[in-house]
Amino acid sequence: MSVFTTVSEDELTGWLRDYSLGDLLELQGIASGIENTNYFVTTRNGRFVLTLFEKLSADELPFYLNLMAHLSRHGIPCPAPMANRHNQFLGVLNKKPACIVSRLTGKSTTAPSQAQCEAMGAMLGQMHIAGMSFAQIMPNARGAQWRASTTPQVLPFTNPAQAALLNSEVSLHAQQNYLHLPQGLIHADLFRDNVLLTGDRIGGLIDFYFACTDALLYDVAITVNDWCMNVDGTLNTPLTQTFLRAYHVTRPFLEAEHAAWPLMLRLAALRFWLSRLFDKYLPRDGELIHAHDPAHFERVLKNHIASKRSVWI
Q: What is the mean pLDDT of residues 159-183?
């Protein structure tokens, strides 16, 4: 795992005394993720996931925990935060903000089938609808301002062609106004490794700590860019159409969203190319980095730019 805060069984046993979850039976570190420290926790009352937050502060976290609780109550299979005896979702463990949530069933896939893409499209639409009744708002921390401030930091690590592409794309999207598109709560990181599947059924959506308020279509583009992609970084037409049609049945797209789709695919690719460049070349001190290859989303972005016609329903 990229950021690791060690928790012993004794330390967790003491922390769990503030919860009604039963005695600790097993504690197991999860060797994945680049933002937080995670453990599988088994108690006499069930199976859970313990998260210690390495970047987000205690002031920022209630939004995410309240959102997961809201979505869970509205039938979306996502981790349900467990409240302590003081009716609080958030605690402190080893000087880090920490929470414990329900553990969901299923496992992620690296090669989604058409049926799984259909299920994912429908589930994303359901999540967006459920989020409409969530009152809290969180601006996108990786929006236009972040793109503008991060790009100069990574430019020294790019060649002239990459630098020109980054600058032109950041400038292009800075001139766009996507507020005319339907807005709401988005996951913003719904890659395959953040979805648990049981066969073709969605067993769980996890890792909501990039969730924010933004254009719903942006969330669709982020997800399609991972779920419906060929190995060469081009969109798989059958998978993309299946995904979009399933979403459309749940939350119908507007014509304005159709018109914005090509640019939104590019924006979603730019966001992850930029963040992967930053994580690779400018890691925080003390991190064990599990950095993803930035070149993948550079290829995806170039393919979107070169595409004469974006796949739609």
A: 97
